[in-house]
TrEMBL record:
This is Glutamyl-tRNA(Gln) amidotransferase subunit A. It comes from Chitinophaga alhagiae. PANTHER family: GLUTAMYL-TRNA(GLN) AMIDOTRANSFERASE SUBUNIT A, TRANSAMIDASE. Belongs to the amidase family. GatA subfamily. InterPro entries: Amidase (IPR000120), Amidase_dom (IPR023631), AS_sf (IPR036928), GatA (IPR004412). GO terms for molecular function: ligase activity. Keywords: ATP-binding, Ligase, Nucleotide-binding, Protein biosynthesis. The active site is at K52, S127, S151. Pfam families: Amidase. It comes from the Bacteria. Heterotrimer of A, B and C subunits.
């Protein structure tokens, strides 16, 4: 009830697309009964969770913040949701986001933008803006988002909270609406590392419904998070000296690295070499995958269909898709279709795959010598509403520090460490080897 009241009071933030009040209260009452009867109803008993509206919950509407899925009800729950429920979590509602998780500001939602609770003239980041604000404003305890190129870490950074993107394949994607399948990963927002670690523990692991979910055993993320030792950190010189990075933030990172050294850690600068190519490679590959994934929304199988009558099949598809998809989604379908087309395939798609391979090798090489890589999460603090809407390229370029982890599959976390003189928070991004979430969480907990 406390959370439901707060959600009501903070309606203007537009974080929730729908609140499952009746169902949530029913879950809470049932749990209360079980606890009174002496049962132990699970690791997350009574924990209030919000889910990004790209994650399916049986019997509930799921729209990907798109008009094209309006009115569509999910027939099954995502594996991550099943696992939360099995441990007693209460799913309180579905959270606003950019349409089909495409965006960096949450201004691309068909259901209106989300406001940053710290400064209502600024965006919360995206695409999981609603999930970030819900935790930031205390409208749930933890939330789920999805991170294809930074959509959990970037809004966490803008909102001053913790955001984790696990290793690709750590969490099943079954029931996660696909944007770019070889990049997508469910991520977790929380206000501290222990909460995020606990949720990760519950929702990770193999899944018969997702062959890309890793078979690796899930380690104990509840290990002593306070455990500290001298670490060997690398920072990427080309990232820190990139001219897009806010100079005050650069100084913040530099003095933080000095502090780490004075505490006995090693912090060394290394070159990544391919940083200028990562955004381009990311947008070529993800739009290519998206153009294929989104071909299923044809007006027949799901949600919206054009009301116009007497169309032949091709025109019916065209009309339904033209009316159902928003501008940014259309832009990406066009771009993705173009880079996959005969004659351009090798110049764009194949080339981008080669860049991806080089990035993977470089990442492995650096992480063979270092425990973790330290990076900014975003080159600037939260944008003003409307600031980047007319310039999609400028918006894409701001993804420079986050797309790296998705191109290479490694786990990454953003922790809120700093405050800018403009009053906004910004974070430190930490990256470790694949499936090394244990060290990632320990390091994050110790720096926070
Ligand atoms: N901003 C990136 C994009 O628009 C990230 C999206 C995401 O991670 N879902 O593609």
């Amino acid at each position: 009830r406390v959370y439901l009241d707060r959600i009501e009071q903070q309606r203007h933030l537009n974080a929730y697309l729908e609140v499952f009040d009746a169902r949530a209260l029913e879950q809470a009452r049932a749990l209360d009964g079980r606890i009174r009867a002496g049962e132990r109803p699970g690791k997350l008993a009574g924990v209030v969770v919000g889910i990004k509206d790209v994650i399916c919950y049986k019997g509930h509407e799921v729209t990907a913040a798109s008009k094209i899925l309006e009115g569509f009800t999910s027939l099954f729950s995502a594996t991550a949701v099943e696992r939360l429920l099995a441990e007693g979590a209460i799913i309180i509602g579905r959270l606003n986001c950019d349409e089909f998780a495409m965006g960096s500001t949450n201004e691309n939602s068909a259901y209106g933008k989300v406001l940053n609770a710290l400064d209502n003239t600024r965006v919360p980041g995206g695409s999981s803006g609603g999930s970030a604000v819900a935790v930031q404003a205390g409208l749930c305890q933890v939330s789920l988002g999805s991170d294809t190129g930074g959509s959990v870490r970037q809004p966490a950074d803008f909102c001053g909270i913790v955001g984790l993107k696990p290793t690709y394949g750590r969490i099943s994607r079954h029931g996660l609406i696909a944007y770019a399948s070889s990049f997508d990963q469910i991520g977790i927002f929380g206000s501290n590392i222990a909460d995020v670690a606990l949720v990760l523990q519950v929702i990770s692991g193999p899944d018969a419904y997702d062959s890309t979910a890793s078979q690796r055993e899930v380690p104990d993320y509840q290990m002593d998070l306070r455990h500290n030792k001298n670490r060997k950190f690398a920072y990427l010189k080309d990232a820190l000296h990139h001219n897009g990075l806010d100079p005050e933030m650069r100084e913040g990172y530099e003095s933080f690295f000095e502090q780490l050294k004075s505490e006995g850690h090693t912090v060394e600068g290394v070159n990544f070499d391919y940083l200028d190519y990562v955004v381009a490679a990311y947008y070529v590959l993800t739009t290519a995958e998206a153009s294929s994934n989104l071909s299923r929304y044809d007006g027949v199988k799901y949600g919206y269909r054009t009301p116009e009558k007497d169309l032949d099949l091709a025109d019916f598809y065209k009309k339904s898709r033209s009316e159902g998809f928003g501008k940014e989604v259309k832009r990406r379908i066009l771009l993705g279709t173009f880079v996959l087309s005969a004659g351009y395939y090798d110049a764009y798609f194949t080339k981008a795959q080669q860049v991806r391979r080089l990035c993977v090798e470089k990442m492995q090489q650096i992480l063979a010598d270092y425990d973790a890589i330290l990076l900014p999460t975003v080159p600037a603090t939260a944008f003003r509403i409307g600031e980047k809407t007319d310039d999609p390229i400028a918006m894409y370029l701001a993804d420079i520090y986050t797309v790296l982890a998705n191109l290479t599959g490694v786990p990454a976390i953003s922790v809120p460490l700093f405050r800018h003189s403009n009053g906004m928070p910004y974070g430190l991004q930490i990256i470790t080897r694949e499936f090394d979430e244990e060290n990632l969480l320990q390091i994050a907990n110790n720096v926070l």
